[in-house]
């Protein structure tokens, strides 16, 4: 790593600037569209003719995998573009693609149409968060970065609650139309948003930008990158398996009333609002990203154990309270992306900040078949317990061995 050669310091901005507002609203729409399928999974599949319980589970996992596969592809694509062409081009290009894909999702008539449009939507959804966090991190003073990304996350994750309300009130097709329309409306807010000064200065230099494979040509850099990826896996274990399959887990636990995935997602993401606020604030108070992440990972482990083994015979209300607190415990998502952005130089920052969360999200593609394979010998709860334990232990190790990045000067490049 070496300092960027700059003629003047990059300009910074305030916590409620147009950049922070647009990034926060962009993440709001991103989360709305990302989580919407988990909310309308059963309703939409039933209307498309998939009614058998096992088929609904299997087809739902297939569609989730298609969406997450798109996010893996999009993560690399948008990350490279973010470092080569600029953060703003990714921020608005990704919004346009996932908005159009979600409008088209409202017209699907077959599972295959549904699957391919979830793939395209996933590609679009992959770019927004990384570009937004990178832009906010590079334009805010280093003392305020944690608060800026906290605002982005806190506003953003509340999009899941709107997705539940719209899906419940207006049906799954209209919910997709609303999500697409919100994204297109957001594009009008690009007026007044400027490109990162750090990126503009790096663009004038001779340094290579956006080389994804450069992350693997240096052992220390590759280790930092892999550790960043591993930190985010527990959140997607919780959301992609424990919450998305809430009806199946509720039945296994003998919950005394019906449990829906939509309400599970609603309460989990309601908890995430508080969790993201708390984790961002805690990292500022402790002046340490790593210690805040460690505390939240321990909290998450305790709540996964409660969810799996302490709710037998509970009422639906108690179950949803557990989903809410579980959501708080995984509210370190934006903090995780902030850490990833802070670990790398300006010429690779967007590549890392965009690929890291999407590879973490894409871990569902690996977690789901492992979950299904272990489900036979260990059962539903045992399989989830093993995967949860492994993902949390590995994430804790990754955080504990990663360099602290709080207050780090980001005006540098990777050699």
Automatic annotation (TrEMBL):
<dbReference type="InterPro" id="IPR020846">
    <property type="entry name" value="MFS_dom"/>
</dbReference>
<keyword id="KW-0472">Membrane</keyword>
<feature type="transmembrane region" description="Helical">
    <location>
        <begin position="173"/>
        <end position="193"/>
    </location>
</feature>
<protein>
    <submittedName>
        <fullName>MFS transporter</fullName>
    </submittedName>
</protein>
<feature type="transmembrane region" description="Helical">
    <location>
        <begin position="378"/>
        <end position="399"/>
    </location>
</feature>
<keyword id="KW-1133">Transmembrane helix</keyword>
<dbReference type="InterPro" id="IPR036259">
    <property type="entry name" value="MFS_trans_sf"/>
</dbReference>
<feature type="transmembrane region" description="Helical">
    <location>
        <begin position="228"/>
        <end position="247"/>
    </location>
</feature>
<feature type="domain" description="Major facilitator superfamily (MFS) profile">
    <location>
        <begin position="19"/>
        <end position="406"/>
    </location>
</feature>
<feature type="transmembrane region" description="Helical">
    <location>
        <begin position="114"/>
        <end position="135"/>
    </location>
</feature>
<dbReference type="Pfam" id="PF07690">
    <property type="entry name" value="MFS_1"/>
</dbReference>
<feature type="transmembrane region" description="Helical">
    <location>
        <begin position="259"/>
        <end position="280"/>
    </location>
</feature>
<feature type="transmembrane region" description="Helical">
    <location>
        <begin position="60"/>
        <end position="81"/>
    </location>
</feature>
<feature type="transmembrane region" description="Helical">
    <location>
        <begin position="147"/>
        <end position="167"/>
    </location>
</feature>
<feature type="transmembrane region" description="Helical">
    <location>
        <begin position="317"/>
        <end position="341"/>
    </location>
</feature>
<dbReference type="InterPro" id="IPR011701">
    <property type="entry name" value="MFS"/>
</dbReference>
<keyword id="KW-0812">Transmembrane</keyword>
<feature type="transmembrane region" description="Helical">
    <location>
        <begin position="292"/>
        <end position="311"/>
    </location>
</feature>
<feature type="transmembrane region" description="Helical">
    <location>
        <begin position="88"/>
        <end position="108"/>
    </location>
</feature>
<feature type="transmembrane region" description="Helical">
    <location>
        <begin position="12"/>
        <end position="40"/>
    </location>
</feature>
